[in-house]
Amino acid sequence: xxxxxxxxxxxxxxxxxxxxxxxxxxxxxxxxxxxxxxxxxxxxxxxxxxxxxxxxxxxxxxxxxxxxxxxxxxxxxxxxxxxxxxxxxxxxxxxxxxxxxxxxxxxxxxxxxxxxxxxxxxxxxxx
Length: 127
Fold this sequence. Notes:
Layout: H1 2-18, E1 24-33, H2 41-51, E2 61-66, E3 70-73, E4 78-81, E5 99-102, E6 106-115
Parallel strand pairs: 1-2
Antiparallel strand pairs: 1-6, 3-4, 3-5
Helix pairs in contact: 1-2
């Protein structure tokens, strides 16, 4: 299950990115995922939930953005979606497609951060 190593790598990248940001907490990690990435979304989510345990990101959500398959159609001379992953043809003219423009993505797109206020020391004043 290579999704576990991917989930651990995501957490490593996020941890590295958060170094030096002591006053921020990661609420969510946004991932762009294409159907041709070779990664099963549900498997990655399960692996992520396992990998995040006992880390600084134990309560951090993983949010997916689905990236559709887009090809360059030689007949239309334009980028077009495919009809389906099973029927890899231009949705506009039905020409078989071979040049994938989008749909292979597995990208860490964004981190959703929440600012954390430093603890304020409570002072008792005798009156």
